[in-house]
Amino acid sequence: MKKSCFFICFVLFVRVSPMWGQGIASSMNRLLSSNLFATSDVGLSIYDLTDDAPLYVYRDKKMARPASTEKLITSIAYLARLGLSSKFYTRVYYTGHLGRNGTLYGDLYVHGGFDPEFMDSDMDKLIAELKDTGLTKVKGKIYGDVSFMDSLYYGAGWCWDDAPYEFQPMLSPLMLHKGCLEVIATSSLSNKIPQVRIRPFSSYYTVTNKMTSNAEGNKSFSVDRDWMNGGNNLLLTGSVCGTKKKMVTVSRPASFFMHVFMERACRKGILMKCFGGFKMLPSNVTSLLEYSHSTSEVLRPALKESDNLSAEALFYHLGAWHKGVDSCFISAKDGVDAIKGFIDELGYDPDDYEIYDGCGVSLYNYVTPELMLAFLKYAYSKPEIYKELIDALPIAGIDGTLKNRMKKGRALRNVRAKTGSLSGISTLVGYLHAANGHEVAFVIMNQNVMKTKEARAFQDKVCELLCGMW
Predict the structure, then answer these.
(1) Is the dihedral of CA 74, 76, 82, 88 positive or negative?
(2) CA separation (Å) from 405 to 36, 248, 252, 450, 456?
(3) Distance (Å, rounded) from C-alpha 376 to C-alpha 416?
């Protein structure tokens, strides 16, 4: 009796195409009759891009949290507005004059443009390029310029207790190694205390090592810091057998960047004594060098690996485009306004949705499968955007966040999609190739799910079904 009632309610929400999509209706109906949906919900929107016709729709107008599939909204809006020519830069300027002996009689400025891919090795390259300019000594002060964005380093709706975890670093226009430290611990046969290496190496942080070597296995090796008070003393506890790695965020990433910058410059023979703090570039500066990463280099980790920092960089640069490229103190609101303007152009009312960040970490984001599909259809209609998107999305069973999913069957290699996961939320949005050669866009938004693996299993079954369609 319960199943009959469920089916009667269910058919009221389903719409299918009168064409070949009719063939999947019964199979989809069976999938949706799973016990999973006795306690959870789902929204679906499946579209045949080749025939330009809907295939299957279920509760596509119902609000849902997108989780990390929000990154698709950010990425598509970014590519539509800025294309591939925009860069994420770190620039060095100076005041005064540079003498023949390599001495700068003036101040040195490092201006951050929110480059999320500026890693430990990039700092070495930047210092090498600085050395190549002939600079040997700075008589004045060293300043950092973080005026690209406002001082809010977390997004609205981000969880405060996620502060030490690598997926939620503090945001800053000057980012080094994604605002994180990589702790590498190796057990020792001759010493009870494991050896520890940390990247990037710096005196900015301190380490308290309370670990032990354990030949029988690992017992909760952990890295923590006093993140409640913004501390950067790393506390290493637990035991290690072999080599283990952990990531932890740093507090005040801009200060971390400048500290490492000056340390490494001095190590390479460029004398810098006085850090002056943070302030905007004066009008009389001279450009010395620029180090940057391309849009493709930022888009790929944002989508392929679901990197939150890279997505937020896209979001803030989109906000800068909206506010004016040369503007300062870009806020999350500028990014939101840019995306909402794009939603309006797609023919939807932006006030019907909630957008708070660019990566999907915010618990305040609410969109619909219908809107997500509109973004996918737009990207497909623009070959230059679609190609970039397809190249950056995870491939089922092969790489990214889909590396360990859909490892066999027709879905293997045929699905390219963005995953999304938050507590109680699991989403999958992207494209696939059906057996009949048609290209299909799909949106699956599972909500209120207690066991994420069950929602993912449902999503994988939907993809396998769609990939096998004739």
Answers:
(1) positive
(2) 19, 27, 37, 19, 9
(3) 12
> 318-327: long-range contacts (C-beta < 8 A, 24 or more apart)?
318/74, 318/77, 318/78, 318/81, 318/82, 318/358, 320/148, 321/81, 321/82, 321/86, 322/81
| pTM exceeds 0.90, yes or no | yes
CA angle, corner 175, sides to 301 and 281, nearest 5?
Answer: 130
pLDDT one-digit tens code per residue, 338-347? 999 999 999 9
CA-CA-CA-CA torsion sign (312, 402, 38, 27): positive
* Predicted confidence band of residue 90 (pLDDT cuts 50, 70, 90): very high
Distance (Å, whole) CA 58 – CA 45 = 6
Q: Where would I find the H helices in 38-163?
A: 70-82, 120-132
Order across the sheet with 195-199: list the strands. Answer: 195-199, 180-186, 243-249
